[in-house]
Amino acid sequence: MPSHKMRTKSEGERSGTRLGSSLLNGRCDFRVWAPYANGVDLKIIGEGETAHPMTQRSGVFSASVEGAGDGTRYCFSLDGGRGMPDPVSRSQPEGVHGPSCVVDPMTFRWADAGWRGMELRDYIMYELHTGTFTREGTFEAIIPFIGYLRDELGVNAVELMPVGQFPGGRNWGYDGVSLYAPQNTYGGPRGLKTLVNELHRAGMAAVLDVVYNHVGPEGNYLGQFGPYFSSRYRTPWGPAFNYDGADSDFVRGFVVENALYWVSEYHFDALRLDAVHSIYDSSAKHILEELSERVGARAEEEGRRAFLIAESDLNDPRIVRGRGEHGYGMDAQWLDDFHHALHSRLTEEADGYYSDFGTLRHLEEAYNRGFVYKGQYSGFRRRSFGRPADGLECDKFVVFSQNHDQVGNRAMGDRLCAVLTPEALRLAAAATLLSPYIPMLFMGEEYAEGAPFQFFVSHSDPNLIEAVRRGRRNEFRKFNWRLDVPDPQDPKTFERSKIDIAQRLSAPHDSILRWYRDLVALRKKRPSLGVVARRDAASEMLPGDVLALRKKAGSQSSVVAMSFSPSKMKVELALPDGEWHLAICSNRKEYGGNGQEQGPISFAGKGDCALSLQPYGTVAYLREGPT
Questions:
Q1: Does one domain contain both 603 and 504?
Q2: Is residue 559 a contact partner of residue 542, using CB atoms and an 8 Å limit?
């Protein structure tokens, strides 16, 4: 949108934020919640530094400064102390310890007025880390690859790992401390808006990973302003947000308005909420429910779609049940049980949480029921765990064979291609992309990227750096990994994790990419190979470690036979009457196979179809017509 000389609303009112900096007709209003302070000074930083005493009402301090505008740098001094960044800073150009910067969102010219988003069930997601996706490591450096993602691979939604300002320039993003300020080394507010704008121009959805369970340890000034954190709860990464204690209304508003900010001011189509199992709230209305309610209302107000996707380690269907069904109303959640069942069966790893999985029956259950653990005893957790997901449709779950956690939280950050044969790697892709759920890929997996994805940070406190190193070593003890863990602080750890998409052009990466590309295209073209109603999806185990996944969508039916055996298997596949045609076969030469077909090209469906499946082979058959 272009700038206007006169405004009827400040950008704060427009985005839903009550605090921070707001431009209005030649002046800038500053507001900060600081109930701990007796007095607060606003400091404007230019060639010198000017102090403006702020007036207080109900714990909120405010000041208005004529002439302050886009690019003005400022900080807040509580009771004469050193200046600290604005908790609702829109930009931190000098990092987490530096002054905040006023941002005028009206100066950015959006070109996505006709974009209304797409249905969540149609998403084929691609998770990426901005800093390691390209050599430059910026938002705008991603833009030249949008054509590759859309046209060569076929995905239609890009999920960014967290971008809120974090210490230094190397971090996964979960150590962010300025939740409203896009990382300066990535390109800041303008770079992020430019990326979202170009994604929408290409007809692709933009998804942002947000962290509402904790903030990072370095540069975290929130606790000095007010009771942002709870003394009753603690997450594995630090103090939990205060969602249900004294003075929690402002804290809840801080988080809810952050979600609205990303949806309205940055035009994101969906937010992925990190580790909601570490969000503690005993209020009558849980913060997740409030987020669902407010984001849904904002999307309706703006005439477009906006979704919330939770990462949850609870196996609790309330996360995604509708608010009218006494649920929290998240639109979908990550399905870790699917990943664990698939990974443990293919790799035979049995340490840590993989000890609860390992059989093909677990994967069959994930296809049929969603949650594998739904109340039975979990040996890893040493307690009964979970609850049935009865009544939940398939579009309530996001599945993956790899993601940042499941790769990066391995001792060496090794990807599946480092531990599986190409045949098994193709099987993992098919199991995910032909599932009845919403699929997600992790950057580089589509061409078997050779670089690992390791854990990296760039803190400045020596004690914190050593604590992170020690924490990583301790984390891997439960997996019995006795490897030398890469130093998270070493810049080489970050550099090793950068991917090189040019690998896709050479063997054997090109054949893996063709397999992913054709699976994605098939899913988009054939409704029965995408998300379907729960009643229209069923998996069954066949003799010889073969899993058959059957789905229907309208008049179309499909069956996918997947062999989890390292040996050649012969199976009989029962198909209903009708003409069945082979849609895809993983053993074709263009995918890296030996070219031997694994079943007939077409089949009349009057009995059993004899399949000779190659090791870890996959075939999919389609039929048109009534069942």
A1: no
A2: no
Which stretches of the chain drop beneath a pLDDT of 50?
A: 1-16
Shared domain check, 152 and 89: no
| Active-site amino acid positions | 274, 311
Edge to edge, the sheet with strand 556-563 lists 537-542, 546-553, 556-563, 618-624, 580-585, 602-603
Can you give the pLDDT at residue 126? 98
Question: 115 in a domain, yes or no?
Answer: no
The residue range of the domain holding 617 is 538-624
Question: According to the model, what pLDDT value does residue 471 have?
Answer: 78
In terms of pTM, does the model score above 0.90?
A: yes
- Per-residue pLDDT, 3: 36
b/e per residue 44-55 (b: at least 16 CB within 10 A) = bbeeeeeeeebe
Task: For residue 479, give the nearest of 358, 355, 384, 335 by alpha carbon.
Answer: 355
Examine the domain organization and report whether 83 and 214 are in the same domain: no
Q: How far apart (Å, rounded) are the C-alpha atoms in residues 341 and 37? A: 52
User: In this structure, what token pair is assigned to residue 550?
Assistant: 């059957």
Secondary element (H or E) of residue 170: none
Residue 5 lies in a domain: no
Classify residue 443: in a domain, yes or no.
Answer: yes
pLDDT of residue 472: 78
The Cβ-side half-sphere exposure at 71, using a 13 Å CA radius, reads: 3
Q: What pLDDT, on the 0 to 100 scale, is given for residue 7?
A: 41
> Does residue 466 share a domain with residue 405?
yes
Q: Is 352 left (phi over 0), alpha (psi -120 to 50) or beta?
A: left
Model pLDDT, residue 603: 81
Residue 479 has what pLDDT? 63
For residue 586, give the nearest of 573, 574, 595 by alpha carbon: 595
Do 193 and 223 fall within a single domain?
Answer: yes
Do residues 571 and 491 both lie within one domain? Answer: no
pLDDT of amino acid 483: 67
Q: Which residue has the tokens 């049980």?
A: 337
pLDDT confidence of residue 475:
73
42 inside domain:
yes
